[in-house]
Each structure stands twice: as C-alpha cells, then as structure tokens.
Amino acid sequence: MNSGESFPFDSPIVPMEAVVKDELPSPPGWAYEPKWDGFRVVAWSGSPPRLDSRNAKPLLRYFPELQPSLEGLPEGTVVDGEVVVVLDGMQNFDALQNRVHPAASRVEKLSRETPAQLVAFDLLALRGRDLRASPFSGRRAALEALAPDLPAGWSLTPSTRDLEVGKRWFHEFESAGCDGIVAKRLNGRYVEGKRDMVKVKHRRSVDVVVGGYRLHKLGDRVGSLLLGLYDSRGQLHFIGHTSGLKEADAISLLSELEDLRAEESFGHEARQPGGESRWASGKDLSWIPVAPKLVAQISYDQLTGERFRHATRLERWRPDKDSKDCTMDQLERPEGPEFDQVVLGG
C-alpha cells in the first residue's frame, strides 16, 4: 500500500491483460499499439516510488537507475507500461532478464552497463484522479498530454485507430522488438486482471532436429522434446523445446525415442540445454540425448538471440527431410527501424 493520501486507490493492482487471437478486430471502436518485449509494470509516483510487476512483485530494487524517472512523475500518478533494455537499437530480453539478480553489487554494475527504460501505454491515475473508469480514448488523450512532461527514461508507445497502420506496424516494428500488436477498446474501462484487450503475435514455422527429451513427471511418457539446428560448421545447437504433446502421442513417442538414445547429440562446442538456474529453482531439468534423426516442423513466436524464447508448438513430423538440412539460416531476422525511432520521445 502506498504511503500518503495522494493516490485514489491502493497498490498493488493486477494489470489488465489481453487474449491472443489470429486476427485484429476491425474498426470502428479500436486502437492499435505495438506489443513490446519487456517486463509489464505498474509505475507509481511518490517518495518512495513503486515499480510493480504483473504479479505485484516490487521491481525497483533491480532497476535503481529508473528511480528518478518515477520520482519525476506528478504526485498521485499511476502509469501502466513496460520496462525494456535496448541494445543496438532493439530490445534485448536476455539482458533485461539478467537484471533481476540477488546481489546488490551485480545490480548496480548492470544498471550502468545495460540500463533499462520505461515505455508508457496507459494512464490509471493522474494527480490523484482515478482514471480507470474512463474510456481508453480519454486515458490515452490524458497520457499524450502528459507525455511532454514525462521525466527522462520514459517513452510513449505509438497508438493508431487505423487498422491498416496497425497491420503495417506488425511487420515494420518487429526489428525494434515489437512482437505483435495489441488492440484496445476505445470505450473500454481499465478492468484489472481481465483479458479485455486483443493481441496478435508473430508466428513462424521452421524444421528442427530432435536432440533429446525430458520425461514427464509421471515417468511413462515424454514431457518435452529438446530441439536443435545445425550451424555452418555442422554443430547441432540446442535452440529450445516443445511441450504440450497430446497424451497418446507423448506415450507412444517414448518407446521410439528410447530406441534412439545416444551418449550425446548437441555438439561439444555448441549450445547445450540449460541446467539449474534461479529461474527454475528446484525443477528437474535432467534430459536424455538421442541420435539426431527425427525432424519436426514446429511453429514459434519469438527469438531471443539464436533460441526460441517460449515453448514451441509441434505442427507435424517431417520424415521426408534429412536432419542435416535443418540449419540456422531458416531463422528470420527482421529488418526495419530501431526502437528509438518507433517510440515517441525515446
């Protein structure tokens, strides 16, 4: 709960969310905005200020360089936005994730080496006035009016009511780290914790090699498949996993993979499946290598470096394709404007 009497509601709150769709809703009545690849946050002015995650966890200790950006907000102001780290003109989620570290000395070092910034896309309170019941069109107008006075470290995400512009942004802004488009109802209230927005995300397909698997916790089926692609030197690199297999497929696949067990699969000098980390504390990450013979077509939404950011989706098996043809050059690298050329006031 925030100290003082300047806020019209207590912290923390649960941000409004979006449901994933295949297509954006058509006008009239909608605004379209880039979906950024960072940490969703609710920012509170004050002394001390607050920076809360979507799960209401305080984040400011990990981003001390952002404190002046929060303290410079007008008293009693609450902004919904995103924390991002931008390197070489594009958001870098790995660098952002590395900022969440338990050691204060490490946090301080990284705050200088990979500083974060804030992107604003909604205004929940302004100078002590609760805006959550106002339509989004009114909240956006208030946010745009506030934008010139936002302190250093803040940018404003672009917004349009033109569906064709939103579709163009979907492709053009990917180079800056935009991983899709969010549609918001112009007359919509800010509904905490509800999926009242719509988002469309990038999705591509690629042929990969199965280099290993993890057992399901029940032990009688496959839990997830570990996927690889070959580099130009012929090394098989681990690039991600696919899970969510149908029960019958997961059970029948286990015996086939057991017949392919091998001493190793991913190259000695190649990227390997990760071990224990603070992101998966206590989770069994042991895996079993298999001979790289099975080829599958999977679909994915995002790349982080040369790996899949999230779990992929198994689309079909490719018995017609040689595993050596599953190479890194299948991965698409978007070209276009840099992050600071997309956001307003960046």
Structure description:
- This protein is α+β, with helices and mostly antiparallel strands and 346 residues long.
- It has two domains: 17-201, 2-Layer Sandwich (D-amino Acid Aminotransferase, Chain A, domain 1), CATH 3.30.470; 204-330, Nucleic acid-binding proteins (OB fold (Dihydrolipoamide Acetyltransferase, E2P)), CATH 2.40.50.
- It contains seven helices and 19 strands.
- Strands 3, 4, 5, 6, 7, 8 and 9 form a seven-stranded mixed sheet that branches. Strands 12, 13, 14, 15, 16 and 19 form a six-stranded antiparallel sheet that branches. The chain has a four-stranded mixed sheet with strand order 1-11-10-2, covered by helices on one side.
- A hairpin with a 2-residue loop joins strand 7 (116-126) and strand 8 (129-130).
- It is elongated and about 65 Å long.
- It starts with 16 loop residues before the first strand and ends with a helix.
- The model has no long low-confidence stretch (mean pLDDT 92).
What is the C-alpha radius of gyration, as a whole number of Å? 22 Å
The total domain count is 2
The H-and-E topology, N to C, reads as: EEEEHEEHHEEHEHEEEEEHEEEEEH
CATH domain class name of the largest domain? Alpha Beta
Overall strand count: 19
Q: How large is the count of helical segments?
A: 7
Write a concise keyword list for the protein shown above.
OB fold (Dihydrolipoamide Acetyltransferase, E2P), 2 domains, alpha+beta, D-amino Acid Aminotransferase, Chain A, domain 1, six-stranded antiparallel beta sheet, seven-stranded mixed beta sheet, single chain, 19 strands, elongated, 346 residues
